[in-house]
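BUG: 3D viewer hangs when loading the predicted structure for this chain

Environment: internal workstation, default settings.
Expected: structure renders.
Actual: progress bar stalls at 90%.

Input used:
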Amino acid sequence: MKSEQKQAVYYGEMNDKNGTIYVAATDKGLCYVGSLNEGINELKNWIDKKRSGTTLIENVEKIRPYMVQLEEYLKGKRKNFDIPIDVKGTPFQEMIWNELQRIPYGETASYSDIANNIGTPTAARAVGTAIGANPVLIVVPCHRVVAKNGNLTGFRGGLPMKEKLLILENPKKKF
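Structure tokens produced before the viewer hung:
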């Protein structure tokens, strides 16, 4: 009997003026963008919980196309991503992550806006939980979701990172 080959998850460290972000991808697409300056353990913990049975392999060349687009975005040279993503979640999470990708660059939406958009107006808390499980920060733009009153709320990368991303996209708006 042939042994089943484990799926590979390739990763690399991306550095910019603000710090380090770990980025990971499968052969199908980008599967993880880490929080700023959180280190390799954040990625390893995510792999253990969400992609157990995979082999984590450092390979910057495999993930270079993803890092290039992220770097372009962080330098203000890219507004949209055209890289494949490989995210796995519950059907509800995946529906929310798809909805997040409809929020235009430079704009924000509230948790209740997202709940209304998917036809479940009373599900704002569930929407928040699904957004919190987004494995690909920035590319699936969960940073564009704010409280109904416009205040910044939860973000896996931390509120300072969320604020920087929103200001990058819309420098005239105050957060």
